[in-house]
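BUG: 3D viewer hangs when loading the predicted structure for this chain

Environment: internal workstation, default settings.
Expected: structure renders.
Actual: progress bar stalls at 90%.

Input used:
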Amino acid sequence: MDYEELDEAEKERRKKEAVEYRTLKSRSNLFLFCATLFGIVETVIIIFALFLAQSFVYFRVLKLTENGNMTVFSIILLVLFFVGIVVGHILYVRVVRLVIKKWNLKDKLSKDLIDHYKTKKELLAEKDGEFVQ
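Structure tokens produced before the viewer hung:
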């Protein structure tokens, strides 16, 4: 076996690794794009549901008029907006973790993306060399 054959084999191996790397990156980017769209839609739905619940309680249960004390209504609306964002993000992360685990996407997505959605417990266990499911 001469050096030219080794060079050809090495070129083929590197080409195959490059294709696998690009495939992994494109899958990860597509997954991240879809997950981000899901997160945005889900957060908007949560904020809208909180707004409807607040309006129902404010106008139907407490029977306050539209002109009465709108400052309190605005402050509560602002607080619920931030609560909706936080709850939406927490739900988004949990759903993404569930999707990765349920569909076994750990070997199909990049390690950086998988590590981003791991819990602290999983990261510490991985650091110590333990296996956590």
